[in-house]
Amino acid sequence: MDHAADAHRTDLMTITRFVLNEQSKYPESRGDFTILLSHIVLGCKFVCSSVNKAGLAKLIGLAGETNIQGEEQKKLDVLSNEVFIKALVSSGRTRILVSEEDEDAIFVEPSKRGRYCVVFDPLDGSSNIDCGVSIGTIFGIYMVKDDHEPTLDDVLQPGTQMVAAGYCMYGSSCTLVLSTGTGVNGFTLDPSLGEFILTHPDIKIPKKGKIYSVNEGNAKNWDVPTAKYVEKCKFPKDGSSSKSLRYIGSMVADVHRTLLYGGTFMYPADKKSPNGKLRVLYEVFPMSFLIEKAGGQAFTGKQRALDLVPTKIHERSPVFLGSYDEIEEIKALYAAEGQKE
């Protein structure tokens, strides 16, 4: 990448321009999706600004309430959740919202109702705020085909039905990664313009990777295929060099690195959490959607992650996602274990 040339570029592809270009490919489009995305982008900018000044504004620290997952909420969690709910409802394009922070789904009042259901984690990795580690927002979007009265079934759909997904990472820079169904593109916030600029066009995950990402503190509780794969990463028997372990503990940051550099990100089921820890609707699905659109794979240990059909809005699932060949290896280990049983 020629950074000197980039510094003098005047033809900037902003996220708004990018989405409008995509919209123009569909003559029947009414622009609803574009409006919805612009409201999500606004929410991301607001949260980015709040994260940057959290220490100064005394926003860090517990808000005193506990969310549906039993995690103590940070002030920034509460703020981010409110910001996204207000931004999404005011777009006039949403029907149902599912947030990690709220026990129940939010049904938008009829006067502000639209065709889209948005599932999101407003601030993933928020336990890392105090130490300056990257955190982020994850979102997925479903479209409701007809005009029936909204029900939970509109969001309890497999990930294959999502029309778009993305995340915004608040770290050394503010990066928004988005797929509207064809390809994956990354945008970086230019603070001087207040605009997201296309910096990572058409991201493709490498077919193989040299990094694995997993919480090894849970190793004693893992199943056999997970333990075998990690063992193989550390002590390969084919003479190849060992893989590097990189685990941040913030899903957005770990998946972002996996997307750009290749490798595997794993949160497997174990004896302590037989259903895994990550939530299907607003963590597993959006990230699996992005990884697949970039040429990778996502697997639960039993099936393709996007084929899951959730029965509850806060349902959890194990997940292995990353480079195509690496996930093939994990699938083979699970298949071999299944034959033994």
UniProtKB/TrEMBL annotation:
<keyword id="KW-0963">Cytoplasm</keyword>
<dbReference type="Pfam" id="PF18913">
    <property type="entry name" value="FBPase_C"/>
</dbReference>
<keyword id="KW-0378">Hydrolase</keyword>
<dbReference type="InterPro" id="IPR044015">
    <property type="entry name" value="FBPase_C_dom"/>
</dbReference>
<dbReference type="GO" id="GO:0046872">
    <property type="term" value="F:metal ion binding"/>
</dbReference>
<dbReference type="GO" id="GO:0015979">
    <property type="term" value="P:photosynthesis"/>
</dbReference>
<feature type="domain" description="Fructose-1-6-bisphosphatase class 1 C-terminal">
    <location>
        <begin position="205"/>
        <end position="334"/>
    </location>
</feature>
<dbReference type="InterPro" id="IPR028343">
    <property type="entry name" value="FBPtase"/>
</dbReference>
<comment type="similarity">
    <text>Belongs to the FBPase class 1 family.</text>
</comment>
<dbReference type="GO" id="GO:0006094">
    <property type="term" value="P:gluconeogenesis"/>
</dbReference>
<dbReference type="GO" id="GO:0005986">
    <property type="term" value="P:sucrose biosynthetic process"/>
</dbReference>
<dbReference type="GO" id="GO:0042132">
    <property type="term" value="F:fructose 1,6-bisphosphate 1-phosphatase activity"/>
</dbReference>
<keyword id="KW-0479">Metal-binding</keyword>
<feature type="domain" description="Fructose-1-6-bisphosphatase class I N-terminal">
    <location>
        <begin position="13"/>
        <end position="201"/>
    </location>
</feature>
<keyword id="KW-0119">Carbohydrate metabolism</keyword>
<dbReference type="InterPro" id="IPR000146">
    <property type="entry name" value="FBPase_class-1"/>
</dbReference>
<keyword id="KW-0460">Magnesium</keyword>
<dbReference type="GO" id="GO:0005829">
    <property type="term" value="C:cytosol"/>
</dbReference>
<dbReference type="InterPro" id="IPR033391">
    <property type="entry name" value="FBPase_N"/>
</dbReference>
<protein>
    <recommendedName>
        <fullName>Fructose-1,6-bisphosphatase, cytosolic</fullName>
        <ecNumber>3.1.3.11</ecNumber>
    </recommendedName>
</protein>
<dbReference type="Pfam" id="PF00316">
    <property type="entry name" value="FBPase"/>
</dbReference>
<dbReference type="InterPro" id="IPR020548">
    <property type="entry name" value="Fructose_bisphosphatase_AS"/>
</dbReference>
<dbReference type="GO" id="GO:0030388">
    <property type="term" value="P:fructose 1,6-bisphosphate metabolic process"/>
</dbReference>
<dbReference type="GO" id="GO:0006002">
    <property type="term" value="P:fructose 6-phosphate metabolic process"/>
</dbReference>
<dbReference type="GO" id="GO:0006000">
    <property type="term" value="P:fructose metabolic process"/>
</dbReference>
